[in-house]
Amino acid sequence: MSMYTREELTANALTVFGVSPEVVIGALFGAEEETFSVEEARGRIEQFMNRRVNE
């Protein structure tokens, strides 16, 4: 399984995930890992996009 840095995933956010780089940054924020597979990042992005916003 190929692993990618936050920077690589962010730079390719639109092409790989169909989201803006800011979404990838938010989804990976606070993660302890330094590298991620595309599948791991996609899962984190989906969770991030489905979070409720606190008012």
From TrEMBL:
Q: Which InterPro entries match?
A: YqzN_YkzM
Q: Which domain of life is it from?
A: Bacteria
Taking every annotated instance into account, which residue ranges of this chain make up the domain YqzN/YkzM?
Answer: 3-51
The protein's name is YqzN/YkzM domain-containing protein
User: What organism does the UniProt record list as the source?
Assistant: Paenibacillus tianmuensis
